[in-house]
Amino acid sequence: MNAEARGGRSAQLKHTGLRPGWTTGACATAATTAAYTALLTGDFPDPVTITLPKGQTPAFALAVEELTAGAGETVAMAGVVKDAGDDPDVTHGALVRSTVRRLPPGSGVVFRAGPGVGTVTLPGLPLDVGEPAVNPVPRRLMREHVERVAAEHGGTGDVEITVSVDHGEEIARSTWNGRLGILGGLSILGTTGVVVPYSCSAWIDSIRRGVDVARAAGLTHVAGCTGSTSEKTVVSEYGLPDIALLDMGDFAGAVLKYVRRHPVARLTICGGFAKLSKLAAGHLDLHSARSQVDKPFLAELARRGGADETLASRIATANTGLEALRLCEAANVPLGDLVAARARDEALSVLRGAPVAVDVICIDRAGVVVGRG
Questions:
Q1: How many CA atoms lie within 13 A of 287 on its CB side?
Q2: Cα angle 227, 246, 338; round to 5
Q3: Would you say the C-alpha torsion 8, 289, 133, 24 has a positive or negative sign?
Q4: How far apart, in whole angstroms, are the C-alpha atoms of residue 30 and residue 22?
Q5: pLDDT of 7
Q6: Which of 200, 229, 217, 68 shows the shortest CA–CA distance to 136?
Q7: Residue 199's Cα: distance from chain center in Å?
Q8: At residue 15, does pLDDT exceed 50?
């Protein structure tokens, strides 16, 4: 077996022995696809197959379906039970429903929050205030699948999609949604459609194995990535092969400590601005349950970068790290670079003089580089 087959992100997941699952966004897309198909044909496809951003084509069984006619229109509803695999996800087993009705030609796709799906009430998220908490990638997936169904069955693709989650408001109490100003329920999430399961011991072991494979292949440059978007960024920046990519997830400390004992010439750390601001503040575990974005810390960094007290106060009370970053971008304060530089310093501190050069790249949710250090 060659090194390419034994290393990299997909090999890490296989090595853990953990079963991946599907995001709420993937479930909502499957439910929407089934509902819109039934709206146009009268029949619900079951199971319903969708295509995810990386090309996977999972099939979902429908848990509920309903086609109702009345008041001059027909409405279709389908629901899928979320399977999070071996990840301890609070939404595992939740019933995600999509209700689809036709809109006049030219209306496009309109999203609504049904029972159990939250509404955005504060700035700093990738959605406008007042919008249903259905994140950008799930929205894109649903639009794409509506377009495909419309092309196949002669629809216009102009629909209203109402996403709901049974008991979602109750489940959301176990999340950070309330603190982020997402009220009334859960967020519909997912950038790849796949839930990557994180057992701490299993995933840390897979990180170590990834480093070992890269070293055995003679690589001198590896990258610790927090997810698929940051992985794409480092491939674009450096052209690194798959076996150079370490899916560190939230375990920045695990990567740094193992590379300290098993050095490579160069380590790139790439991740979302908010996550890497936690590393900059000294946290080695970046999971939201174990560390939070420290806005007063960001405000102090911004002061060092030229922010006045008015801006620093706004940063200290920002809703999210992304909002703090946008405030600084508007004022030409290089907060992204400051966070990246501080994260690099923290990484070097953990490496304790090991012969490893470190650089850090911060990105936003769209994968745009917002800071280098």
A1: 13
A2: 65
A3: positive
A4: 11
A5: 56
A6: 229
A7: 18
A8: yes
* Residue 349: exposure state from Cβ atoms within 10 A (0-12, 13-18, ≥19): exposed
21 - beta bridge partners? Answer: 195
**Any idea which residue has 């400051």 for tokens?**
338
Q: What percentage of the chain has pLDDT greater than the value 90?
A: 67
Residues 6+ apart with CB under 8 A from 356: 259, 260, 263, 264, 265, 266, 267
Query: Which tokens in the block code for residue 279?
Result: 């590393």
Burial readout 119-140 (b: 16 or more C-beta within 10 A, e: otherwise): bbbebbbebeeebbbbbebbbe
Q: Which of 74, 81, 149, 140 is nearest to 365 (CA)?
A: 140
- 8 A C-beta contact, residue 133 and residue 117: yes
CA distance 22 to 196: 9
Q: Which residues contact 250 (CB under 8 A, 6 or more apart)?
A: 198, 226, 275, 285, 286, 287, 290
pTM, rounded to two decimals: 0.65
At which residue do the structure tokens 């801006």 appear? 311
DSSP helix/strand/coil, 364: coil
Spatial CA neighbour of 166 closest among 239, 117, 102, 131: 117
Q: How far is the C-alpha of 241 from the C-alpha of 82, rounded, in Å?
A: 33
Q: How many residues does the chain have?
A: 373
d(CA 162, CA 55): 26
What's the angle, vertex CA 40, arms to CA 34 and CA 46, rounded to 5? Answer: 25
User: Which residue's structure tokens are 């990738």?
Assistant: 126
Tokens of 183: 């009220």
In the numeric block, which tokens belong to residue 198?
């994180």
The amino acid at residue 99 is: T
Question: Can you tell me the distance from the alpha carbon of 115 to that of 136, in angstroms, rounded to the nearest whole number?
Answer: 20
> Is the pLDDT reported for residue 10 higher than 70?
no
Task: Quote the DSSP letter at residue 332.
Answer: T
Q: What is the DSSP letter of 365?
A: T
- Of residues 208 and 261, more confidence is placed in 261
